[in-house]
Protein 1
Amino acid sequence: MMASIDHKFPKVDKEKCTGCGTCVSVCPQNVFELKDGKSHVARPEDCVECMSCVENCPVGAIKLVEPR
Ligand code: SF4
Ligand code: SF4
């Protein structure tokens, strides 16, 4: 799945993530889901690189990474 993505997508630092749900709320593309109290990047292929998640995560746990 990941190999087919041709744009940046978010990566969550699970050590930093508090599971606050802000990224789930602010993402216009519904990329995230909360799973076991942490943010899970469920649909990386839908990311449009708007940066809202990166800018709004209160603990700086999200960055956009290059596709592999
Ligand atoms: S906004 Fe940050 S801390 Fe909150 S759930 Fe998302 S990644 Fe975790
Ligand atoms: S950069 Fe924008 S579209 Fe991509 S995951 Fe973050 S909030 Fe969603």
Protein 2
Amino acid sequence: MRTIFRCVSFTLNLSHLDMIQTYHLYKTYPGGNAALSDINIKIERGGFVFITGPSGAGKTTLLKLLFAQEKPSHGEILVDGINVSKIDGKRIPILRRRIGMIFQDFKLLTHLTVFENIAFALEILGYNKKEIKRRAWQALRLVGLHEQMDAFPLRLSGGEQQRVAIARALVKDPPLILADEPTGNLDPDLTADIINMLILLNSKGTTVVLATHDTDLIQRYRKQVVFLARGRIVRQQAERAPIAEKDLPEISRS
Ligand SMILES: Nc1ncnc2c1ncn2[C@@H]1O[C@H](COP(=O)(O)OP(=O)(O)O)[C@@H](O)[C@H]1O
Ligand SMILES: [Mg+2]
């Protein structure tokens, strides 16, 4: 009985924990300089946070550490209650089931159809055929691509390919989405589409962490921002009230 109570209280307490916390996090690649130094961040559940900074600042490294794709040199990382800094190989799938990743270059499997790309993400998680069909259809509907589910990715535009990648990330219903320069290959209209889609997911409770060097994007959306430079946090900015539509700057079309 006692154990049950302990389990219940542990589960309840989890919802009060931040989605992400790092403590004195450092990463130095073999033979390299420090890619990250003394990173301390807290990202609340349900937050939407931009990680920004110039090329080489450490944005991708930070996301890789959160996703256990790289190991920290020092420091601690907690993601959704999981101690990622101490994670062993067997528990990595448990972590990754809780994280949807989105990349600049989409990383779709070009020999599979749109539907098969989404289904594949669920197959490796062990879902049955019926559940895969239901979830994949729902995810593709959400991103407005259900009619293209039999197309191959390279027949789609860049914006559509990124929407497929978003569907693949959200089909697992993850509490956290990590996006690394997701609009880096897209023009301004498609950029707005993709960000609005992530904002919609965020409004339904998904925590979103988006790495971008695009300062216009950050200005426009006025979300929480962590500024990195040479591997260190140089500034943090809280979410600000949205600007009225009429006062929005045009996103530069360069
Ligand atoms: N696999 C790697 N091996 C060695 N150095 C790396 C590796 N990945 C990144 N770096 C270095 O770490 C620093 C941070 O890179 P990165 O995290 O990719 O920055 P950003 O995403 O902000 O451009 C850079 O100096 C980069 O050269
Ligand atoms: Mg990067």
